[in-house]
Every structure is written in structure tokens, then in C-alpha cells.
Amino acid sequence: MALSQDLERSILGAVADGFDDQLAFTEALTRYPSLRGQEHTAQDFLFRELKTRGYTMDRWTIDVDDIAHHPGFSPVDVDYSNAQNVVGTWRPREEKGRSLVLNGHVDVVPEGPHEMWTSPPFEPRRDGDWMYGRGVADMKAGIAANIFAVDALARLGYRPAATLYQQSVVEEECTGNGALAALLRGYNADAAIIPEPEDDKLVRANCGVIWFRVRVQGIPVHVREAGSGANAIEAAYELIRGLRGLEAEWNARKGDHRYFENLDHPINFNVGKIRGGDWASSVPAWCEFDCRIAIYPGTPAREAADEIEATVRSVSAGIPFLSNNPPEVIFNGFFAEGYVLEEGSEAEATLSRAHVASFEAPLESFVTPGYLDGRVFTIYGNTPCLVYGPVSQGIHGFDERVYLPSVQRVTGAIALFIAEWCGLEPI
Question: Residue 265 above 90 pLDDT?
């Protein structure tokens, strides 16, 4: 049942009253440099904050053996000893409403050269309506919005009348295994919200992603005899050109995929890292490069991986020394399928009403070619997952920033969603 206008106004007012505290919380969380493998201190902070608020707490280190069997698992070649998830559970006195997951990822991408930032990336700063810092938009402002949406209800003397999970997961930026581990631990609900920086819109469909590394071996000789050797770095260029051809081929198929047919370039291929050789005067004996490519929803990751491997083999067949010494393709991260949020769910209708009340404008949806943990809930949890969050700029780049008026309105929409979806009971 829709909320009364008086209750809507009270909830939005409570969000506004707590917004200064919310911004201070976001700044504190952003100061933790929660890069891959270093997320545990930020998770310690969130564990303490949620425990103080009365949540029943669970914190665990992801065990690859617990999730490697699952079709949503992405392969990893890094140490998981600090890959810790945190979940806070709120249970009502009597379960009257519908349960909810509020999910966010605490891991952030590398900050790059600090001299290219206007200010230190892990020292958040405010400038007018913007807050700057690595991870502040993607997505620590969203984690804070989840927590402070519930806090706003508490300020009015209410709490959710259904089970609610506050999830802070790792590995979103590289595998999606954090959200998968939480799902397989039993944390699922009637709906989920992930406040990623999505420009005040709802994600309707989302590409999957595959990460892979290509290793090339050459024949090293002194540069004075370069013609008798085989340059692994130059061969890598040819393989990259071949993979660009695969990217073009996949983009040409966009008309076969609902919601993607009108996007200019839904499939993006990127060479994110390359290294090779040992000496400027030696023909390089080796080269390896790390790649990321998107795949359409409905395309099995294994099927796409087979096409990647076939492309590398085809290019190699045209290079004499590689035809007998083929490159190795290693899948070392995202092996994740995309998803479509089907229209017409009651969860989306509830968010639409909450958005209109908070933004005084209708909720829009769009399609994104980036990865989102929403696929874990939608594909494997059979749960409508609403990926919906604030306006941002510079994510994965320099001077990453989030628009604070948008953050407040998104927090208000989440609080209104909780009130309607879960129902309310007095504290």
C-alpha cells in the first residue's frame, strides 16, 4: 500500500535532518583505501557502525572452495585472506512486510598517479555540491545511503517490519564473487537494492564481463639479428587487433539482444595492462596483456570464452612462429553473465513511487554496458534487483565525485521504499 503524503514528508525530512551526519560517515568510509586485498579495514569500520545500530552481525572471509562450484563463480589468481564480507541483519518483532537486501560493494579500483588528482584520492573533500575521492561515488556514498535510509526511519521512531540485510561485499570490481558468496551463505530476500552511481536512474539491463590474460612467447635474439628472432610484443599487437575484430563482430549482433539494439557500442573491449621483454637490445621473448570484454545478457560466459580462444588461435595461425607455439589464454577474473530486469515487478513499482516522492519526477530506466552485482540476485537468486543510485562523474578515473543533492534524494527514495516494501513497526 502506498504511503500517505504526511508520512512521505516526514521520512524525507528525517533524511534531510541526518544528512550532515551521513556526509561525515561517507567521508570517514572513503578514507579507508579499500583496494583489492585491502578491504578489511573499511569492513571493520562498517562492522562496528552496524553493530552499534543494533544489527546482528556476520563477517567472514570468502573461501573459494565454497563458491567455485557455482555457475556464477569467476576464477581468481589472488589471495583471498583479506576478502571479507560484512552483513548486518535487522529482524522485526513480527514479520509483517517483505524482506529486503540493501547491498553495496566496498572495494575500489586503483587510484592511478596521485599527481593527476586535484587532491589526494583518499582524502575526501567537498566543493559546493560535490564530494571528491576514490570510491566516494563507486560506491561508498551508496553504502552510506543504505545505512542512513534506515537511520532516518529510526529518527522517526520506526524500524522495518520485515527482515532487512545490510550487505557490504568485496570483489565487485573484478569478479562478483563477494555478492555471490553472500547469496550462497543464505542472504537473499524478496527484493534487493544496490545504489550504484547510475545518474538517478534504474538499470534495466546490464552486460556481463569477461577478464582474460594472453601470454605470448617469442624467440629472443640480439637486436643485430632481429630478423632471425620472433618479437613477442609485436605479435601481441596482432592478437589485440584480432580481438578488436571480435569486438566489432559482437557489436554487430546487438540487434539480436533486447534493450541493446539502440546502443551505439554495447560491447567494449579494453586492453588494461601490458608488459613484456627484458632488455631494449634483445628481441623480447615474452609478452602478456590483460583484457576485459563485455558480453550480452543470455550469452553463457563459457560460450563467449570459446569465441575469445578461437579468435586468438585464428590470429596465431597466420603468424608462423605462433602457429607452432600458440599463446595461452587465461581467464583470471570476471566470468560473469549479464542480466535483464524484467518490467512489471512490484519492487520496481514501489521504487517508482518512492522516486517520484523524493525527486518529484518520474523514474527513468536505461541500459549500461558495465558490470553490476545485480546479476547475482537476478540470475541466481530469482530476486528483483534494483540498481539505482546517484549522479557521479569520474568513476574509475581522476577526481571521482558524487553529486550530494542527488545522494540525499536517493537516500530519501530508499527510505520510502523500505517503509512501503517492508512496512514499519515502532521501535
Answer: yes
